[in-house]
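Researcher: Next sequence.
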Amino acid sequence: MSEEATSRQSPVHNKLREFDAKFIDECDWETPEYYEMNDERTSNFELPTHLDEPDAIGAEILANRESVGLHEISVLAPLEISGPSAPEFIQRVFTNDMDIEVGQIRYTVMLDDEGKNMGDITVNRLADDRYFATTLAGETATEHTEWLRSVSPADVTITNLDDAYTCLGLWGPEAHNVIQPLTDADMSRDAFPFFTSRQIEVAGVPVIANRISYVGEFGWELWTVPGHEAQLWDSLWESGQDFDILPVGLEALLTMGVEKGYRLPGADMGPENTPFEAGLGFTVDMDTDFIGKESLERALDEGTDQQITCITLDDDEVLPDVGAPVYVDGDQVSEVNRNAYAHSVGENVVNAYLPTKYAEPETTVEVGSGDNRYSATVREEPLFDPEDERMRG
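Model: Next structure:
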């Protein structure tokens, strides 16, 4: 756990300590990396022995996929974009088609005026002239706020709500059974479709509920003000007792994202990576006008010379480090930018940018680990639930 004075603690920080949370500093928050209490679940699963990580992380992943996980995710921060010309402004600063109705959510990317990738953002429309844009907390939220203000018209207001809202994630097959008794809103899959947002009450707590998921499971991000987070946590936790609910830390969340092929800014993409290179071409609508579009048009004309890839090791006992070299036909062509053991599919996974000609699924590569090179295979994403039935269905 970081000892820096700048690290913030969520309103449920002391509650999480009671669950034996092990904290790390992330996005200027002390956030749970994993929970030692989940060690007691490790006997329920066959976990690998070659990993340099606590077994509780694997247990959190597998148990979450079986039942329901409760995540404290203050590492996310909302920015409010509001004002009479907010709809036109939203379209100008994001790459996707942002013509969405109130209650809809859109996943998109933001570029600067030089076409540099500033990161992926989830936007939901709360009212005709008010939007909620979710990014990473801390420095990223500050940078995004400053950039948006620098290009916004006089009648649009950008507000960094990093300290004004907290977020809990409730995801898993039993998520509906946990939340439905706590609200009058219909939380069924049909009534509350994927990529929609509702302003509701849960256990008497006003909540912005977004039906999206970084872990690839049915459920919601539940946003509320800090003063209500403890009540919301307690109510969900109590309701989940009959459904084997468990607290889940950040490491499990990120690994579940790898299993789903989701990108992590700073690891999977940086300012130099176009959305097309990062596998986020679906977030770009070239029929709309947005800041940085000319740069993407040039990139399309010139062709993409590299592509992020998901690579699995053929050896069950090897998980190369970040920075490990990647070889094709004996020549180094890249290095690992992210690694994880995908517990849900039993694979050692690395992500790396490969020259486009080597980025096709089933391409054979080698990845270095120590003094050795190990055979590996480029795979099609996502590895887990490729039809998205669990999350979208």
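Model: The two ends are 38 Å apart (CA to CA). The domain at 13-74+165-259 is CATH 3.30.1360.120 (Gyrase A; domain 2).
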